[in-house]
Amino acid sequence: MNFSLLNNQLTEEKNLRLTNKNRGFLYGDGFFETIKIFNKKPFNLENHFDRIIYSADLLDIKFTLSVLDLKKSILILIEKNNIKSGSVRVSVYRNSKGKYFPEENTSSILINSRNDINDVFVERSFINIGYYKENLKSPSPLSNLKSLNSLLYVMASKYAKEYNFDDVILFNTNNNIIETTNSNLFILNYNKVITPPLNDGCVDGSMRKLLISIIKSKYEFEEESISEIDLDTCSEVILSNSTYGVRGIKKINEKTYNNSNLYKYLIKSLNNLI
Q: For labeling, which of 17, 66, 238, 264 is most exposed (least CB within 10 Å)?
C-alpha cells in the first residue's frame, strides 16, 4: 500500500479525501514542486525550497515549514513507502472559504511519492519535438510558477501526441520561445549557452537554476530571448527538468542536431552531485 502525507499526517492513498471546496481543485489556487529522490535523499532541495518560498510569497499563501521541516516530512514519506530512488510531489493549496477572493491565506501541504529504478540521471535517447502556437503564455511573474492550473501544458501535450512529437516548444505573446510542456530550454551557439530569461515567462525551474551554475563553470552564458531563427542556427538544444535532469534534442520539425557535447557535460556534472 502507498501512503501520502497531508499536513504531516500519513494517510493511505486510497483513504485520502479532499473536499469539493478545495481551492486547488476549484480555482487552481496553489502550486506544486516535484523533487527527485536518489539514495533516499532529496536532490537539489535548496533550489526547490527557494522556489516554494517565492511562489508562496507571490501568491500570498502562508507556508510555515522550514527547509529542514520539509526535508523531514519527505524522509518520513519515502521511508514509509520504501522509496530508495524516485520523486515526490509537494502540492500547496490555499485553505479558505470564499470564491475568487479568499477569506484567509493559510495553506495545506500534500506530499505524494513515486518509485524509480534508476539511482542516477540516465542518458536517454534524443527526441524529436515541434512547435506549439495555438495558445501562448503571458510573460508575467505568475508564468514563472509551477501552478496547479496547467491547462496550457495539457493542451500542448495533446497537440504533441496528435502530431507524433515527443514534446513541443511553447511561445509567449511576444512570439519568443520560452520552454516545452515540462522542461526549460537551453541552446548552444558556438561556445555560448543561452536560455530564455524569466521575464519572458518560462517556469523558474529548480533544475534550470542548478544547471546555470554548472554551465557557467565551462561555457559563456547568457539569459536572452530566443527565436525560431536561433534554433535554426544553433548547434545543440537541451531540455531540463527535475525528474530526468537533461534531455537532448535530435530534431525540431525538419532541423536536425548532431552535437551532444553540452548534453554529455551536463548529465555527467549532475551525476557527480548525487
A: 17
